[in-house]
Amino acid sequence: AKMAAAASDLLTGWCLFGLALLAILIFCWVYVRKYQSRRESEVISTITAIFALAVALITSALLPVDIFLVSYMKNQNGTFKIWADANVSRQIEDTVLYGYYTLYSIILFCVFLWIPFVYFYYEEKEDDDGNTCSQVKTALKYTLGFITICAVLLLIGAFVPLDIPNKKNSTEWEKVKLLFEEFGSSHGLTALSFSISSLTVIGMLAAITYTAYGMSALPLNLIKGTTSAAYERLENTEGIEEVEQHLLRIKSKCRDGRPLSSRDRRTLKQLEERLRTLRRRERHLESIEKSWWTKFCEAIRPLKIVWGVFFIIVALLFTVSLFLSNLDKALHSAGFDSGFIILGTNLTNPLNMVLSVLQRVFPLDYILITTIVMYFIFTSMAGIRNMGIWFFWIRLYKIRRGKTRPQALLFLCMILLLIVLHTSYMIYSLAPQYVMYGSQKYLVQICTTPLFSPADFFFFVLCSSILFPFILDQCIVTRTYLFLHKFWFFSAAYYFGNWAFIAVFLIGLIVSCCKGKKSVIEGEVDDDDSDMSDDELSVYYH
């Protein structure tokens, strides 16, 4: 009966997974279709963007699944469930590990082969006269560079030394050695791990740039809202009248047949371009003012403020937890050469405390950890949408509703894939104990007599990494934790990246507070837009 119940739970889990997968695919399709340009949309770029975005979301959902599975194998009193013997536990752990490697292999395929090929294919399509064979050859030639980089990373990873430098505190390193002996030593898996960790460092830089800013910009934009469409129309009308008067003054200089000076011709051209932009703004503002969507947004304005306040509180909670976690590593870890690995927590972490309290009521802790993961993904999307896509100081693309070029969508999805790789370490930094063991407990026996007797009593406590060697057989470590700390030098890079993340978040918070309200058509109308682009945005307002 108990085995049947376990099978029923497993079937329910797969059904929920299927529904979640369907929801992810629907969301990805809606998101991509919402932002892609109608005039420049291509089937291959659309499918690639939807698939890459879906892989990013599915990979991010693997962390809560990993934590749930290691916790589900034990009862609330700290004992293993009947079906969770050593072989079953190992199979479940291996399944999760293979799930990680499968998804990470797909990410490698997307980042180093598929997305670059589609990107360069589309670039050639714009420059070529339509010779498909030539486009494919050129795209493959440029993609070969990415494949070479991937091959180099795999080769380095296959032979990179994993030994942690010797330290005086040999007891601490014995604990670490015990930890990673579980993880296996296959050169193929090590090579894949090294490649993924290298991409995770790039994802860390993307998270510092986009996620940190998005965590401050998203809630403050919800709180401040946008300017009134009617007020902007009034200002825009005044601007049109001013430009038209200026144009008349310049044109009046040549009424008697005299040619305009070169300075006046340049000014005339600039004013005509400015007038076209203002008239496009007028058409957009008129459409928005009459739109039912605008009226709906005005009706739910109080709800947006509530969500904005909630998000800023969550962002501050994350920042405080991240700061305390990093400070704990700085004070109590063995230093840089160990990758700042720390077994146990010495400073109280607010998020760890919240998760410990929620563990008492199933499944509140899993809902919270899933919400945190999704929060990082959506704030990353908000950061990319607000900032656009940059290469150092050069702005490559803008992310605009109904006007985003296919290349920009491919870049967006690649950045999200990289950020998702770093999300697991961010969550570990926020709640290290929970990510390592979930809600597992283990039994502790208190002896009341010199010999074991029925008079002895037992109590159960949460698994703790401080006692790792003593609970090796009683508590199961998540595959996420082992994967994150396989290479000590990457762990050191993540540690310094966390400090940079905190700094960028605080700077973004100050900048977002100082900025005024966004325009109701922020980013929708630019000087380099064509008049035909007005038709694309009208889809959303009528």
Automatic annotation (TrEMBL):
Coiled-coil annotated spans: 261-288
Pfam family, one: LMBR1
Recorded GO MF terms: cobalamin binding
Presence of the UniProt keyword Endoplasmic reticulum in the record: no
InterPro entries, alphabetized: LMBD1_LysCbl_Transport, LMBR1-like_membr_prot
Gene name linked to the record: Lmbrd1
Compartment(s) where it occurs, according to its Swiss-Prot or TrEMBL record: Lysosome membrane
Cellular component terms per the entry's GO annotation: lysosomal membrane
Entry keyword Repressor: no
Chief location bin: membrane
Protein's recorded name: Lysosomal cobalamin transport escort protein LMBD1
Family membership: Belongs to the LIMR family. LMBRD1 subfamily.
